[in-house]
Write a structure and sequence with these properties.
The chain has six helices and ten strands. By secondary structure, it is an alpha/beta fold. The longest helix is centred in the middle third of the chain and has 11 residues. It is globular.
Length: 171
Amino acid sequence: RETLENDYDRIVRGMAYPFGTTSDEVVEVLKQCGIAYSRTVESTEKFTIPTDWLRMPATCHHKNPRLMELSRNFVENPGNRGPLLFYVWGHSYEFEADNNWNVIEEFAEYIGGKDDIWYATNIEVYDYIAAYNQLQFSTDVSKVYNPTAVTLYFEYGGVAYSVAPGETLTI
């Protein structure tokens, strides 16, 4: 981590497991090193928010034959299922080696440019969810307080809300 931070003048807080290999021991070391998330090669074909960020699964790999079906499901059927995450992983060298740039181009053309989708990096998603999890609700859920420095969005009772940093909002 220190070498990467020095080489790139950035704070490194995440990674992907080489070849997807990990263990409980490796996860413990990552915690001690201050790593916030680490992507596995597990594909769930679901849009759930990770609960174990150091064993972060993806929705699918870009070579998944169901990629476009999953994309359509994500875009066209959001429903009232709460926050969703569509996470596709892959490596740029695979597009060249497998001569399948068309796969990611079709996906990007379909999923890109939509006003109701937030396109974010892994660490941006992690940081937002960490902030979201700090929202404080009154016992009767009539008020919410945002103790973070980020405007947060949520839906409750079919109504969309945003709560600014430091704001207490009556729901």
